[in-house]
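Annotators were shown the component list below and the corresponding predicted structure, then asked to write short factual statements about the assembly.
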Amino acid sequence: SQTIHQWPATLVQPVGSPLSLECTVEGTSNPNLYWYRQAAGRGLQLLFYSVGIGQISSEVPQNLSASRPQDRQFILSSKKLLLSDSGFYLCAWGRGDAETQYFGPGTRLLVL
Amino acid sequence: GENVEQHPSTLSVQEGDSAVIKCTYSDSASNYFPWYKQELGKGPQLIIDIRSNVGEKKDQRIAVTLNKTAKHFSLHITETQPEDSAVYFCAAAGGSYIPTFGRGTSLIVHP
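Structure shown to annotators:
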């Protein structure tokens, strides 16, 4: 069966510091991978998605970036965090030929 | 692009009552409609989905109905229990494999 991991689970960072969140998927190959942000405990905002290694599509311009160095690894980064970057970050995966997305446990980021 | 509206934003029911959450979508090309349940501090979990060639799908106490003509779909939960309390999201997807999510409904089931 497939499993998706995210770490860290919780992160408190000062404004201006760098960020690296990691997501890995087990039990499948060549998945589509997605990064979402959830602010204010509600809506899901798609940040990035990837259909293959090195292929990244950005949905919202901001100070975040994403990379996919390996088939089942997806990384969300920032060089300098802003207060507005605080939120709940969710990674999701889906099969390349299907629309269903499966979410990870999330990382709660607090920027102070 | 696709636009998904979800209502109500908050739904409060007594244990044992039924709960209905409704969503509308704008893109007639959308053909896949999943529903997710998100418990506090956790990632959303897929609970049921339906494709446009089916009008209704049931799984124990939950069911989803789809009206393609009117472009709306609904989640029905019968005999609600306190553990059903969570935020529920609907979504609609077409050929791009990237779903558009509703803004969520906070369901509160009072014992």
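Statements collected:
1. The mean pLDDT of chain A is 93.
2. The two ends of chain A are 38 Å apart (CA to CA).
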